[in-house]
């Protein structure tokens, strides 16, 4: 994600805020928790007070991090949120071998769940993404990744049928 941010620096309005959001967006992560993003966002704001960042910037970082929970844009003043979400899902648009390795890591992450629980939950996640009108928010990443991402998600979903 950091490399993608650097690659798109000229198009990003608040590069520092985006970098902080990337850095902190999964700083608190427990696979069973549904509050990771909120906890990560709160942690980020608390830690960033030491950097003397203005409250407005800390608020933007907080919202950027929260947006990764449902992959919906919360900061609409510029394209920074769109880029963050596109970077976060960039793995979906990689070639199948890279994507498949990612799915194996996801399965390891949830190894505490037997297949009869994991598979329906994973199918629901995959279908949720496939049901979206578009996976990516910026034209650049729609053009680069949308087609391949949909193929990967569908191919993985077919593995569970």
Characterization of the model:
By secondary structure, the protein is mainly α. The chain has 2 domains: 1-88, no CATH class; 94-161, no CATH class. 65% of the residues lie in helices and 0% in strands. The chain contains 8 helices and no strands. It has helices spanning 2-7, 15-24, 36-48, 55-70, 80-88, 96-109, 115-130, 139-159. Helix 2 (15-24) packs across helix 4, helix 3 (36-48) packs antiparallel against helix 4 (55-70) and helix 7 runs antiparallel to helix 8. The radius of gyration is 16 Å and the shape is globular. The model has no long low-confidence stretch (mean pLDDT 94).
Short structural summary:
With 161 residues, this protein is an all-alpha fold. The protein has helices spanning 2-7, 15-24, 36-48, 55-70, 80-88, 96-109, 115-130, 139-159.
List the helices and strands and how they pair.
Elements (H helix, E strand, L loop, with lengths): L1 H6 L7 H10 L11 H13 L6 H16 L9 H9 L7 H14 L5 H16 L8 H21 L2
Helix pairs in contact: 2-4, 3-4, 7-8
Rg, Å, rounded: 16 Å
Q: Roughly how much helix do the residues carry, as a percent range?
A: 55-70%
What's the structural domain tally?
A: 2
**Structure classification:** mainly alpha
Number of helices: 8
Total beta strands: 0
**Strand fraction:** under 5%
Q: Distance between the terminal alpha carbons, to the nearest Å? A: 32 Å
Q: Point out poorly predicted stretches.
A: none
Taking the sheet with the most strands, its summary is: none
Mean pLDDT: 94
């Amino acid at each position: 994600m950091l490399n993608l941010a650097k690659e798109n620096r000229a198009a990003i309005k608040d590069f520092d805020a985006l970098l902080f959001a990337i850095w902190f967006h999964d700083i608190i992560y427990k696979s069973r928790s549904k509050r990771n993003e909120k906890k990560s966002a709160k942690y980020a704001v608390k830690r960033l007070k030491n950097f003397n960042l203005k409250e407005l910037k800390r608020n933007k970082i907080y919202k950027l991090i929260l947006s990764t929970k449902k992959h919906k844009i919360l900061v609409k003043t510029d394209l920074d949120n769109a880029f963050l979400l596109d970077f976060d899902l960039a793995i979906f648009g990689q070639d199948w071998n890279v994507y498949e390795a990612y799915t194996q890591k996801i399965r390891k992450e949830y190894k505490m769940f037997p297949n009869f629980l994991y598979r329906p939950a994973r199918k629901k996640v995959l279908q949720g993404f496939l049901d979206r009108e578009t996976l990516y928010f910026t034209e650049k990443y729609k053009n680069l990744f949308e087609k391949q991402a949909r193929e990967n998600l569908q191919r993985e979903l077919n593995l569970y049928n």
